[in-house]
Amino acid sequence: MNAPAGPDRLLQGWGRTTGSRSRVVGPLAPDALRDLVAGRPERGLLARGAGRSYGDAAQNADGLVLAPATGPRIEPDTAAATVRATGSTTFAELLAALVPHGLLLPVLPGTRHLTVGGAVAADVHGKNQRADGSLSHWLESVELLGGDGELHTLGADRDGPAFRATVGGMGLTGVVLAATLRLVRIRSTLLRVGSYRAPDLDALMALLDTATSRYAVAWIDTTATGRSLGRGVADLGDHLTAPDPAAEPDGLRYGPARAPRAPQLPLGVFTPLTARAFNSLWYRKAPRERHALQGLPEFFHRLDALHEWNRALGPRGFLQYQFVVPPQARHVVVQVLEALHRAGAAPFLGTLKRFGPAGGGPLSFPLPGWSLAVDMPAGRRGTGGLLERLDRLVAEAGGRVYLAKDARLGRAAFDAMYGPLDDWRATRARLDPAEAMRSDLGRRLGLCR
Ligand SMILES: Cc1cc2nc3c(=O)[nH]c(=O)nc-3n(C[C@H](O)[C@H](O)[C@H](O)COP(=O)(O)OP(=O)(O)OC[C@H]3O[C@@H](n4cnc5c(N)ncnc54)[C@H](O)[C@@H]3O)c2cc1C
After folding, report:
1. Same structural domain for residues 233 and 346?
2. Is the CB of 124 under 6 A from ligand 1?
3. Per-residue pLDDT, 159
């Protein structure tokens, strides 16, 4: 079959470090989509969501990319508190449709501009990962157009291996056409949030470790050293259990303010010195303890308040290094912070979370333990070698790097973190025998040809 016409485009991830050119097509009608996949395009194909993964996960150099794969469609069942949504529907669209019914997505990553397909493919987690697990724990079913061109309905119980290979499988088993999710009931759009400043890593980890709130996350000063190493501010939040008519006179509404475009920052603005100044200022301006009511966008999606902030950081782009290590390996967090400092990596933003249950599948990121995410400018001398050393520390501790944030992990380090993947490969071979589904990330990590 001749592939449908579409523009040849340079595609990049959110970090804007690695790009590649692909023919971009979509949305396609179900039959046309099925014919396209079954026709096994010569250089493979891949579904792309909103391009919020940081590296090359949503790219397929010289091949086809479905962007979007489907049209948006939302079918809530308010009595059952579930929703069926197509793969290209965004979380922002879902929130606008669901919140007025007192329903909330059970997992909210740090941006609302991701799609259902991208969320399933990365088995995303939110600030409630410890309490509620990642998305896989909330999925009732996934409707997958497998790389074999067949429709597979994957339920968590009914078809274990295919479900587990697809959730977290970074788009390499097929195209997520739709998913059905269980939802959380809310009576208010407000959260009661306690913010606590911690002078060092032990204090910060203790706040997260002992938190009883549903949501818990910490901003961490990635530049502090010595006795202040790992200082930060923990935010612990819970939904109000009853509406607050004074604070939300319009009832259950979801209407985040329009995000202005981020101003372009001067080239090379992030140096070790400016990163340190920015982080110190942030720490000092945080009160020792504060209690406040926050709305959904303010609590969950602060980074969405600036449109295209990733472009403001300059043409070289930036890297995010997010890893998780088991609870007993908290020393790795210390080693990583010290190594970033020694190498002058200019880490300008850090987030620490305590993780709970592991995710669904072999490629799913979450494990019980500590997750640290650090943003840093790309292209600084020595950053590549530094991150390879960190990969070894993380792998030796039994941890792993998050593929949805990754742009540079090598195959050996990946195998040490996620391997052996015989079961995943066997299931993929069943769902996609001709390896129709391919991505730049998949090739880099030896997951596809
Ligand atoms: C500011 C910011 C904050 C973030 N915070 C978090 C966080 O807190 N927790 C977290 O878990 N993640 C977080 N992320 C990462 C993000 O949630 C994931 O990268 C997610 O996969 C992005 O979804 P997307 O729709 O943009 O997918 P894309 O980036 O376009 O694609 C990601 C992967 O999904 C696959 N895919 C997309 N659509 C489909 C489909 N229909 N069928 C099959 N495969 C598909 C692609 O092939 C690719 O492998 C954050 C990202 C940003 C930019």
Report:
1. yes
2. yes
3. 61
Q: What is the H or E stretch that residue 143 is in? A: strand 139-146
Pair (171, 194) in one structural domain: no
Kindly state whether residue 87 falls inside one of the protein's structural domains: yes
Boundary residue ending a domain (158, 186, 214): 186
Do 200 and 230 form a contact (C-beta atoms < 8 A)?
Answer: yes
Q: Could you give the angle at the alpha carbon of 355 between the alpha carbons of 76 and 283, nearest 5°?
A: 105
370 in the same domain as 232: yes
- 115 and 205 both lie in a single domain: no
Is 70 exceeded by the pLDDT of residue 54? Answer: yes
Residue 418 near ligand 1, beta carbon < 6 Å: no
pLDDT value, residue 10:
98
Protein residue with least CA distance to atom 20, ligand 1: 118
- Work out the percent of the chain whose per-residue pLDDT is above 70: 99
- Report which protein residue has its CA nearest ligand 1's atom 23: 118
CB 413 within 8 A of CB 399: no
Mean pLDDT of 366-386: 95
The neighbouring-strand residues paired with 417 are: none
| 170 CB within 6 A, ligand 1 | yes
Number of structural domains in the chain: 2
The answer to whether residue 441 sits within a structural domain is: no
Do 173 and 278 lie in one domain? The reply is no
The pLDDT score that the predictor gives to residue 445 is: 98
Give 393 Cα–ligand 1 centroid separation in angstroms. 26
Q: What is the pLDDT of residues 142-190, one digit of tens each?
A: 999 999 999 999 996 656 999 999 999 999 999 999 999 999 999 999 9
CA separation for the pair 111, 113 (Å, rounded): 5
